[in-house]
Here is the input.
Amino acid sequence: MKKIDFTYSAATIQRRFSLIREVELSKNWYQILLDEEFSLMVIAEKLAMPNDRHKVIASLDLVTNRYWESEELLEVGLIREMIEQAVPLHLQQP
Here is the structure.
């Protein structure tokens, strides 16, 4: 499998992304960045390379997750409703 390096310029990060959080992993600092317009979240190295680009180590397309999240929340709501209406076994009459 061929590895393709993915980077963003410092200008692109400044223009497109909001900084969510900075984290240290294995003695390297990374930024968790959100592009709200394209529903994209990336983790990129905090320090730019000599060519003023930031290496991206992970990305997540949030559009796909939004559908599944909605379904999960719907299921959680149904389960919560069933639990709230349930009578504990020790209180049930025979």
Summary: Strands lie at 7-9, 18-25, 28-35, 40-45, 53-61. The first strand starts at residue 7 and ends at 9. The radius of gyration is 21 Å. Residues 65-70 have pLDDT under 50 and may be disordered.
